Amino acid sequence: MTERHQWQDEVLAGPGGAMTDEVGVITGPLTLRTTEGSDGTVRFDVQYTDADEWYTLTGSPVAHGDPFVLHTAALAGIRAGGGAEAPAPPA
């Protein structure tokens, strides 16, 4: 069985926030959780910091890529705002 890795960080969303599948754009202080799946996919979930509900970052999961690099890219995207979505892995 492959060990799954997970990263979680707080991030302040820039103007226009982050786009989610469930509720649309969310803004303000958020928490991003990035999880490497056993099948090689990388999943991104966001929540209002300290809330109970998690939402899927639009475009998640992505098919492959270095999960830590993608986590870092997702954080940068959310900081930039503009309805940030899951980052695409490098070609």
Ordered list of secondary-structure elements with their pairings:
Layout: E1 6-12, E2 18-20, E3 24-26, E4 29-36, E5 42-48, E6 55-56, H1 67-80
Antiparallel strand pairs: 1-4, 2-3, 4-5, 5-6
Please estimate the helix content.
Answer: 10-25%
Category by helix and strand content: alpha+beta
Q: What composes the largest sheet?
A: 4 strands, antiparallel
List the uncertain runs: none
Structural write-up:
By secondary structure, the chain is of the alpha+beta class. Helix content is 15%, strand content 33%. It is built from one helix and six strands. The protein has one helix at residues 67-80, and strands at 6-12, 18-20, 24-26, 29-36, 42-48, 55-56. The strands form two sheets. The chain has a four-stranded antiparallel beta sheet, with helices on one face. The protein has a two-stranded antiparallel ribbon with strand order 2-3. A hairpin with a 3-residue loop joins strand 2 (18-20) and strand 3 (24-26). The longest helix is centred in the last third of the chain and has 14 residues, at 67-80. It is globular and about 30 Å long. The N and C termini lie far apart (27 Å).
